[in-house]
Amino acid sequence: MAHYPRANPAKWWKTRSIGSVRRSPHAMFVSRFRRWTSILALIVLTGMVGGAWYLTNPNRISAMA
Predict the structure, then answer these.
(1) Which residues partner with 21 through β-bridges?
(2) What HEC string does 1-65 produce?
(3) How far is C-alpha 65 from the geometric centre of its chain's CA atoms?
(4) Which of 11, 27, 49, 60 has CB 3.0 to 4.6 Å from 5, enough for a Cys bridge?
(5) CA angle at residue 65 from 60 to 45, to 5 degrees?
């Protein structure tokens, strides 16, 4: 079993600070594929919500009637 320090979250991973900025552990790295897939999913879902809003907009439907 590996030894994991539990008391201080700052010691949960080994890090070297660069000035006052601390680097995240490598496990928190998000790959390019995952980042672009998330952005694409956000755009598609936003488009779907916007499309549903447009199709059910009462002002537009009233003008068509």
Answers:
(1) 18
(2) CCCCCCCCHHHCCCCCEECCEECCCHHHCCCHHHHHHHHHHHHHHHHHHHHHHHHCCHHHHHHHC
(3) 41
(4) 11
(5) 30
**Distance, CA of 10 to CA of 12 (rounded, Å):** 6
Residue in this structure with the two tokens 């680097």, named with its chain if needed = 23
Span of 18-22, 33-37, 41-45 with lowest mean pLDDT: 18-22
CA angle, residues 54, 34, 13, in degrees to nearest 5: 130
Contact 10/18 with Cβ under 8 angstroms?
Answer: no
